[in-house]
Design goal:
By secondary structure, the protein is α+β, with helices and mostly antiparallel strands. The chain has 7 helices and 7 strands; from the N terminus they run αββββαβαααββαα.
Length: about 230
Amino acid sequence: MLEDLKESVLTANLDLPKRGLVTLTWGNVSGRDPSTGLIAIKGSGVPYESMNVEDIVIVSEDGKVVEGNRRPSTDTPTHMALYRGLPGIGGVVHTHSRWAATWAQARRPIPLLGTTHADFCVGPVPLSAPLGPDETWADYEGATGTAIIHALAGRDPLEVPAVLVSGHGPFCWGKSPRAAVEAAVTLEAVAEMAWLTVALAPGAEPLEEHIAARHFSRKHGPDAYYGQG
């Protein structure tokens, strides 16, 4: 089981540069085994071009390395906080992808302007509150996870599969590592389209709520009919 998890996390990590979502080593993917609670995550600072399954580290729910010779990603405490706080997720992705990080640095949620966004997420993509000095120096990565959870304000994490961390970049998630990568790919496209829309039409109105709701429900709702089932 853990070997399968490591392979899926490796594949998801290798997808990030293929999708243009990472520069150098700026990103990581993790996956969680629901039966044990163990988390597989990329080793810290490992180059994507040489990454293999030996670079995937297994950590326990309290953050201790239980398998692997690499140090886990420095973002591991953030991933762990998300698994604890967001029911139903099985994969987490963090990148510094250009368009999503631009919105995060501008300290702006991504407004819901069109149907591409509506297919992806219920409402705007939220922005987390900036951390204070005490949080930053005491438990930076763990506090980042807490800030992300607070930004969701109790909404279903599978309906809002991403949050922008103020001044930092996006965290995305899904039911699996692969689904989390798909969320990160979609978020980047949505972020680019939103930026270009606001540049072209600074006063652009949000998409009508009934159209947004219809688009999300036809793809993700109980009576969804998008795709082949």
